Amino acid sequence: MRRRETLARRMTTAKPSGKPANHPYARRAAVASMVGAVFEWYDFYLYGIATALVFNKIFFTALDPAVGQLAAFATYAVGFVARPLGAVLAGQIADRHGRRRVLILSLVIMGVVTTLVGALPTYRQVGVAAPTALVLLRLIQGLAAGAEQGGAAVFMVEHSGARQRGMWGSLATSGAGLGLLFASGAFFLLQHFVSTPDIMSGAWRIPFLVSPVLIIIGLIIRAKVPEPEVFERTQEVTTTRPHVLVDLLHNHRKQLALGIGLRISQTTASYFYTVFSVYYVGVVLGRTSSVGSASVAVSSALSLVSAPFWGVVSDRAGRRRWYLFGAIGSALFIVPFFLLVDTRSPVLIGLGVVCGLNVFHDAMSAPQPAWLSELFPTVVRGSGVGMSYQIGAVLGGGILPLVAVFLLMAGSGRPWLIVVYFGALSVLTVTAACLAPETGAQALEPLEQATV
């Protein structure tokens, strides 16, 4: 208790430094974090498309096609199951020893794993060792991604001014869109210029094997950005505190529960429109799978504009109002989405994906890094934000493709069970948004009021 009182006195009486803690490196931190988001989502969406279109045929060939598809999506979910553990481990390091160390390590691991996936032998070559190795790599990648996402969000937000956190934080969504654009674009080009037999025989590996290029660029950028000053000023106290995870679970349980709730509907919408929709269009409706990939690519390009727009809106009008718009809108739009997609018209399919992602999903995703970071104090922010991100992702988007395929089968090919499931998860996020404090334009810590 005395330590907390001492910290409070230091923070409220701290004199301003010569430079504001949150302005000099805001752009660099945003770019550094955005690069990680680009690669993380490049990898996960690349794997998601490959899971929907390729992996069930080359890694699970011994299974019935429907069961093989479920098994392929199960390996996709495995990476998400590992994410909370990655967030816990990385959060301890980030809150005690620095944010940048975690970001560099996570980027290296993600790059190595993605490259190895592209080099894996198939089931016909090595038998059961192929899917086993695939699952192991997804577990490792999940650990690294769990470290990356929350760490990058905190790093970006802590370097930003109080009235610009929504805008700078939204670049994580833009980075995700760029990663999705690269991944969907890569598969779109493959499907147009390479025959299906050639893709199945090995051309699918190409997008995975070029990942080291993005990693090298990201490492160069991240090495040039220092730790946020708000973290450095609390580092002395952080090193003398009890275990960070114990502090988080004992003193900040409510914030953690709210953060998880805020994530659930957003990640559900993300993976519904970017992964399951490709499967639904290509496999269920029998359209060429490039229609779904092209729709996601267009939406990803538009997110470079829509995400910053929603971020700025949240800075000016508050986080809650438009977050609720996104959560409720996502739940209500799911029925019109299926009506649009079932027409089998490429234009209407694209319209459905764009509305779902750029209008409703981005209204939640763009202000999310700022809102989650604002819920936690600096000394547990890395752990709190990371666990909110990853536990919410597991409960929402991580299992969505698997659950949606199962519900589609249970509903005899009709999507009404998916609609109910989507709506139920949206209720959780709406509840969390109503209970979470409105934190827009407030200082992350009392000491920041001297420098904002």
Automatic annotation (TrEMBL):
<dbReference type="InterPro" id="IPR011701">
    <property type="entry name" value="MFS"/>
</dbReference>
<dbReference type="GO" id="GO:0005886">
    <property type="term" value="C:plasma membrane"/>
</dbReference>
<feature type="transmembrane region" description="Helical">
    <location>
        <begin position="202"/>
        <end position="221"/>
    </location>
</feature>
<feature type="transmembrane region" description="Helical">
    <location>
        <begin position="69"/>
        <end position="90"/>
    </location>
</feature>
<dbReference type="Pfam" id="PF00083">
    <property type="entry name" value="Sugar_tr"/>
</dbReference>
<dbReference type="InterPro" id="IPR020846">
    <property type="entry name" value="MFS_dom"/>
</dbReference>
<feature type="transmembrane region" description="Helical">
    <location>
        <begin position="44"/>
        <end position="63"/>
    </location>
</feature>
<feature type="transmembrane region" description="Helical">
    <location>
        <begin position="126"/>
        <end position="147"/>
    </location>
</feature>
<feature type="transmembrane region" description="Helical">
    <location>
        <begin position="268"/>
        <end position="285"/>
    </location>
</feature>
<feature type="transmembrane region" description="Helical">
    <location>
        <begin position="322"/>
        <end position="341"/>
    </location>
</feature>
<feature type="transmembrane region" description="Helical">
    <location>
        <begin position="168"/>
        <end position="190"/>
    </location>
</feature>
<dbReference type="Pfam" id="PF07690">
    <property type="entry name" value="MFS_1"/>
</dbReference>
<keyword id="KW-0472">Membrane</keyword>
<feature type="transmembrane region" description="Helical">
    <location>
        <begin position="387"/>
        <end position="410"/>
    </location>
</feature>
<feature type="transmembrane region" description="Helical">
    <location>
        <begin position="416"/>
        <end position="436"/>
    </location>
</feature>
<feature type="transmembrane region" description="Helical">
    <location>
        <begin position="102"/>
        <end position="120"/>
    </location>
</feature>
<keyword id="KW-0812">Transmembrane</keyword>
<dbReference type="GO" id="GO:0022857">
    <property type="term" value="F:transmembrane transporter activity"/>
</dbReference>
<feature type="region of interest" description="Disordered">
    <location>
        <begin position="1"/>
        <end position="21"/>
    </location>
</feature>
<dbReference type="InterPro" id="IPR005828">
    <property type="entry name" value="MFS_sugar_transport-like"/>
</dbReference>
<dbReference type="InterPro" id="IPR005829">
    <property type="entry name" value="Sugar_transporter_CS"/>
</dbReference>
<dbReference type="InterPro" id="IPR036259">
    <property type="entry name" value="MFS_trans_sf"/>
</dbReference>
<feature type="domain" description="Major facilitator superfamily (MFS) profile">
    <location>
        <begin position="29"/>
        <end position="440"/>
    </location>
</feature>
<protein>
    <submittedName>
        <fullName>Major facilitator superfamily MFS_1</fullName>
    </submittedName>
</protein>
<keyword id="KW-1003">Cell membrane</keyword>
<feature type="transmembrane region" description="Helical">
    <location>
        <begin position="291"/>
        <end position="310"/>
    </location>
</feature>
<keyword id="KW-0813">Transport</keyword>
<keyword id="KW-1133">Transmembrane helix</keyword>
